[in-house]
Amino acid sequence: MPAQPTPQEQPPTRPVRVTPEPVALPEPWSSSRVTVVVPTFDEAENLPRLVAQLMALDLPNLRVVVVDDNSPDGTGEIADKLSAELGGPEHGPLSVVHRTHKDGLGRAYVEGMTHALDRGADYVVQMDADLSHPVGYVPQLLGALHSTGAGVVIGSRYVPGGSLSEQWGLRRRMLSGWANAYVKTVLSMPVRDVTAGFKIWRASALRVLDLPSIQSTGYAFQVEMHYRAYRRGQKLVEIPIHFEDRVEGESKLDAGVALEAALRPLRLRRAENTRR
């Protein structure tokens, strides 16, 4: 009888690949009317990629509102084309708000959020068009909102498990860390990432904030929204995310925006003290 091969001589076995069967999305995800609001200015390269990623999410009632500030690079026209390809603004999942002038990120968000609420959104997601906010976190944000009963769930860079792109240099990391520490000191908010721009709101929470009266125009808009939510009794929850660096284009941060971001917390605190 021929000798049997030793275990070391046995031919290697190939791993068996098992393709899982599609699983129906459970409640409450499957019936959640979620609208993602995306302000744009010169994001012609990034917007088609972002829309494709959002449309690939397993969220049947997902809609997207693009708020374009008359981008010179044709982002608004690209958004219109994408909307038409997806069925048009009335029957498809993508609608476009065209603004004739650029007056800041905050005003663009207010207009987009108001549009989303008027169209019946139950939950509104804020995210940038530059692909720095990974789309795959959207279902997690929604799940955290449902499970915690929060008014807003924040995709946080600064809670345990959160992280920043390795492309962020030391200067940007220090500036971001200082900004968060400064705002938390001035406003005494129990939020680690007070300047975060990736989050999901419950529609009822947005209505409590009185969007038309929001004053911030630049990145301070994020701080003002968080502060209003906190002062008006909304539950704020943070979940960790990995923050990517922008893929194409340049940052919109300039000296005026930075100055507003520094002064706004002081004005917010003064206004709140006046209300008491």
Automatic annotation (TrEMBL):
SUPFAM superfamilies: Nucleotide-diphospho-sugar transferases. Belongs to the glycosyltransferase 2 family. Residues 1-23 are annotated as: Disordered. Residues 35-206 form the Glycosyltransferase 2-like domain. Keywords: Glycosyltransferase, Transferase. CDD domains: DPM1_like. This is Polyprenol monophosphomannose synthase. The lineage of its organism: Bacteria, Bacillati, Actinomycetota, Actinomycetes, Streptosporangiales. It comes from Nocardiopsis coralli. Residues 1-14 have a biased composition (Pro residues). InterPro entries: DPM1-like, Glyco_trans_2-like, Nucleotide-diphossugar_trans. It comes from the Bacteria. Pfam families: Glycos_transf_2 (PF00535). The keyword Magnesium does not apply. Gene3D superfamilies: Spore Coat Polysaccharide Biosynthesis Protein SpsA, Chain A.
